[in-house]
Specification:
It is built from 7 helices and 38 strands. The protein is mainly β. It folds into 4 domains: 21-171, Immunoglobulin-like (Sandwich), CATH 2.60.40; 178-327, Cupredoxins -  blue copper proteins (Immunoglobulin-like); 347-475, Cupredoxins -  blue copper proteins (Immunoglobulin-like, Sandwich), CATH 2.60.40.420; 484-576, Sandwich (Immunoglobulin-like).
Length: 578
Amino acid sequence: MIKKALGLGALISLPGSIIPNELLADSSEIFPAGSAIGNPLRFPPVLTGNTMTASVTNQTVWPGQTSQLVTINNSYPGPTVIIERGSTLNINFVNNLSEDSIIHWHGIIAPEVMDGHPMYAIHPGQTYNYSFPIVQRAGTYWYHPHADMLTASQAFKGLAGFFIVTDQSENALNLPSGNFDIPLCIQDRRSVNIPQFTYNPNSTDMMVGFLGDVPLINGTPDAYFQVSRTLYRFRLLNGSNARIYKIAFSDNRAFHIIGTDGGLKDAPVSATSFYISPGERVEILFDFSPYTIGQSVTLKSLPFTGSGGPTYQQGTEMNLLRFDITSNTSSGGVVPASLTPITYYNPSDVVRTRSFTLSHASGGMNMHLINGLTFSMNRIDFEVPQNGLEQWKIVNATNEFHPMHSHGILFQVLSRNGSTTLAPNDKGWKDTVLVNPYEQVIVLIKFTQYKGIYMWHCHNLEHEDDGMMLNFKVVDPIGINEENSGVPKDFRLHQNYPNPFNPSTKIKYSVPQTNGGVNVELVVLDETGREIETLVNKVHTSGNYEIQWNAANRSSGIYYCKLITGNYTETIKMILVK
């Protein structure tokens, strides 16, 4: 059992480290120099302390060569965050880059101001504190940048890492653990640019996505990993900008799929291959006991038909990671008959259907659209009332692949082209779903945890930066009808609009029915929490109100607006940019 503090209230607590302990110390003892062709698989360190600093650093990716990357805490990939369900994440993100950045905790259910929306981007030299409870089930999640139009370049240059949640129910399943629980981040880079991660997309790259021809596993080129003749757990993350992989073993041996984006499935499913698109995670169990010491088997991406330019294509066959069988040590792990229960949504409970058509801009432009729209920071494209099961129908009207990702929630895939018979990597809790060319996918989704502004976008990062992204707002269950009724259900402070703003912004708030009215205060605080201005201080009857704050005499920075009435308070974050 290892335990390491991860900020205030957070704790690593596992039956053995997810990152092999000896590999953290000195991989040369496990992989003697010259003992095998290729490079020993690297593992990023586990985050200790509560600071994550983004900066440009020099790293050794290819032996004997220096690569200039964007890293967290001087590590590529970024340090792995391991935290137990029920703990509180407390991390200070320090932006030492020369441009805006922000961290999105991909798949993690977090409050709006903690989720990594680009409207909260951190300016160079600034620090932002992330503090929120970990409320979801155990699973393999990750983090990456999400600044507007900078996501693709920063992620490609190295700013990303694993975020692993544990819980006691998963620990009790006797899955392979410790040195037999292996995270694998798959990324692609371009051989023509070795040793640099040069990011210079042309018009074809923006249309198809920035594809490479060199696979890196945990940042390791030509990677190999020495294994025992026993059962292993592999946590696969597609951390590529755009490339889709069709995962299989070189001898077509079967394995068990046990987890998807949102943690374990309800039962293992045997398979010989699966697709994994950017942003997705799939967990598998693979048994090396049929092999003999001295044999090798390779994790591959099988060929498939895909779009691309003359040099880089989707569907290119690739050797990803070679496993060399070298010992007989047992993991002691098993393939359980069942895993963790999942309550599947009932389509008959759907209260609302939304349609999203994925398309290109007309007139020969390369822009990617959702319902004819490109991203606007200050526009709310739709509102989602809490606690109502919705059906989101995604129609791909293009010949490209679109991995669609929702912030703030996990969803379930219902059907592909009308068929509810799904591949095992589609069945379970998801936050990203691959929509193939000219395909229709339906997902079932229900927001139960937090209100606020979140994002729905394509996780092909070139498409995202190109504008294939919408803002939506999770609101009280009455939703839009409440807005128009004149009788709000609850007190509510809405996010200011626009945000960021210069020099003025509108702030809307709601007051429910009360006997004789209620006194409402609306105050502005600076970044330190000091009250600097009172906008409202008077008795209100029920209704929806709006006030404008002019900050022409204020400096650029972060401000907070606080609603105070009786025992109720609510605060929003506002960003003034001049």
